[in-house]
Specification:
Elements: H1 2-17, H2 20-44, H3 51-70, H4 73-80, H5 83-88, H6 94-121, H7 129-156, H8 160-176, H9 192-197, H10 199-211, H11 219-224, E1 229-231, E2 234-236, H12 238-262
Antiparallel strand pairs: 1-2
């Protein structure tokens, strides 16, 4: 039962390891985001001694989120090159295929997140063994959660163009209304209800709480720093945020496996550029 899953994970990891451009693009975008949003963070975040660490922690978890979501495009590539037809007739169930793709996407997203953590160490991010383990554990959870969401979206997309559009529609507003790049304290009040409904808000909150070692802060201090949220007197703490991420992970994973098991891949269209 496990061997087919391991085979799919190994195959996808080898495939992604050969894509050096993707790694370069991730590092380049990280540098650009650090440069652009550092000015906003320094001016908007109050009460924290190291605003750049506040920013880098948000970039780390957003890297994991976006990588996990975008790696689901691999399933459409497998359909385009005929690999999916071959694997569907093999003695392997669809749920094993789904789990293999989710795990491989999650592993790649966590590895890229760890690379950003290493970069953060050179600009002042402080990570001890305990907090490092907790950070990686949460990154694994986020990777699994949004790899499942990405595979679910890929399964319902009728063509590759629709999938890319869906990913853009989902990721762009959620990312910038999560507090990862722009602190929630700086977001216009009219958008705050969307911030509270955004699942990435709680993902960012839980990760930032761990990465910045904010255990010493009181709930109200966490609210002022944008790591906890006061909704009509009810404070959502980072621990509650972590439980919300777990609930999202279970939900997205269940939806993903069920949808993938019943998907009709013959109806998915892949558009390729014409070669001259």
């Amino acid at each position: 039962m496990i061997r087919p899953i391991k085979a799919i994970v190994k195959r996808n990891l080898i495939k992604l390891a050969r894509d050096k451009m993707r790694l370069f693009f991730t590092l380049f975008m990280t540098g650009m985001l650090l440069f652009i949003f550092s000015f906003v963070t320094k001016s908007m975040v109050s009460g924290l001694a190291h605003p750049m660490n506040y920013l880098i922690s948000g970039i780390i978890i957003m890297t994991v989120f976006q990588t996990a979501l975008n790696n689901s495009m691999n399933i459409l590539e497998d359909i385009a090159n005929g690999f999916m037809k071959e694997i569907l007739v093999a003695p392997i169930t669809r749920w094993q295929i789904a789990i293999g793709h989710v795990l491989s996407s999650a592993i790649v997203s966590v590895l890229q997140g760890i690379i950003i953590v290493v970069i953060g160490l050179f600009i002042g991010l402080n990570v001890d063994i305990l907090h490092g383990i907790m950070m990686i554990s949460l990154m694994c959870l986020v990777g699994l959660t949004f790899s499942s969401l990405g595979l679910y979206l890929a399964s319902i997309a009728k063509d590759s163009t629709n999938f890319q559009l869906i990913i853009a529609i989902v990721s762009f507003p959620l990312t910038f209304l999560s507090g990862a790049y722009i602190p929630t304290m700086a977001i216009p009040k009219i958008l705050i209800p969307i911030v509270y409904l955004n699942p990435l808000t709680y993902t960012t909150s839980a990760f930032r709480f761990i990465a910045l070692h904010l255990e010493y802060m009181s709930p109200m201090e966490l609210v002022k720093s944008g790591v906890a949220f006061n909704i009509n007197g009810f404070i959502i703490t980072p621990l509650m945020s972590a439980f919300l991420v777990v609930a999202m992970g279970v939900t997205f994973f269940t939806l993903c496996v069920n949808r993938f098991s019943n998907a009709d891949f013959s109806r998915i269209k892949i558009y390729k550029r014409a070669h001259r």
